[in-house]
Each structure stands twice: as structure tokens, then as C-alpha cells.
Design goal:
- This protein is an alpha+beta fold and 169 residues long.
- 27% of the residues lie in helices and 25% in strands.
- The chain has an eight-stranded antiparallel beta sheet with strand order 7-6-5-4-3-2-1-8.
Length: 169
């Protein structure tokens, strides 16, 4: 099965073989193509967003109502500069890819899990985001310490070896 990048490349190859009517399309086949490198359609550094699960006001209130450690009281989404994300909504960690388009993020699941295969997030002026595809409260941007930043960077880097990441990019 061809991924989107392969289909686009195939289309551009066919388009370039057609008469000069397609010359504009052939002049710069990389224009608008998402890059694996940091750019306008990706975050500049690993960025984590979190929210309290289950509609609770605080993590402590969630934990008091759900003492079983398997219950995830904090949900998170990490956006990586390599266009990958790491998401934890339950006890299952999922990964996928994303594209930023202004204040909208479009995500696509890369691994099996309990999150939608595709989702859209809308960022607010304060940097938080909400999503009809991921019901619940707003995700808020965190400010990790040096150790937390290192862990985020390592998690983002590890994704580059995953089968779905290699196939998608």
C-alpha cells in the first residue's frame, strides 16, 4: 500500500511527463511538501500538553475516585520536531504523525491504540488546545525541567526507528 508521500511523488512524476501545461507543477516538486525537519508545519522543540482525565478538577480528585494505578488520571500529548506525536489518553501510549496548519493540528495514528486514527486539534490564543475528536477538557502546555526536556527529546528521537515512521516519511 502506498503512503501519501509515495502517492504524491507518483502523481508529480506522471504530471511531469505530460505536456508543458504541467510545467508549473514540475518546477519545484518540493514546494509545500512537509519536511522531517523543524519548520513552519512542526514544533521547534518537543512540547508536552496535559489535561486531567475524566472531567475531574484536579489530579488528586481523579486519583481519590480511581485509586487503581492502572487508571490514567493525566492525559498527555507530546508534539515532536520530527512531525511525530506521543499520546497517552489511557494506560496505552500511542504514536503517530501530525501537520500544523495555522492554529489547527491534524494528527494521524501510526500505532495501534485507543485513540482515533485521525484527529484535529484547535489551538487557543493561550497555547492550550481542544478537540472534538478527543473529548474532555483543554490540554495545557507544560514547562518541563531539564530532566523532563531530556526525556521528551529521547522519546521523540526513539520514534524515528519505528516501522510506521520510516514508512510514512
Amino acid at each position: 500500500m502506498m503512503n501519501l508521500r509515495q502517492r504524491n511523488k507518483t502523481f508529480m512524476t506522471l504530471a511531469c511527463l505530460l505536456p508543458p501545461l504541467w510545467a508549473a507543477a514540475c518546477s519545484d516538486s518540493s514546494a509545500g511538501a512537509p519536511s522531517r525537519e523543524s519548520g513552519p508545519d512542526v514544533v521547534a522543540e518537543p512540547t508536552e500538553y496535559v489535561r486531567i482525565a475524566g472531567g475531574f478538577e484536579t489530579f488528586e480528585a481523579c486519583r481519590a475516585a480511581n485509586p487503581d494505578p492502572v487508571v490514567n488520571c493525566q492525559q498527555s500529548l507530546v508534539l515532536c520536531p520530527n512531525r511525530a506525536y506521543i499520546m497517552s489518553l489511557t494506560d496505552i501510549i500511542t504514536e503517530g504523525s501530525y501537520v500544523l496548519d495555522g492554529d489547527t493540528l491534524h494528527g494521524q495514528l501510526g500505532t495501534a491504540g485507543d485513540t482515533p486514527s485521525e484527529f484535529t486539534l484547535t489551538f487557543a490564543d493561550d497555547g492550550s488546545f481542544t478537540s472534538a475528536d478527543l473529548p474532555g477538557g483543554a490540554f495545557l502546555k507544560t514547562t518541563p525541567d531539564a530532566d523532563g526536556r531530556r526525556q521528551l527529546e529521547e522519546g521523540c528521537k526513539a520514534i524515528e526507528g519505528r516501522y510506521w515512521y520510516r514508512d510514512r516519511f
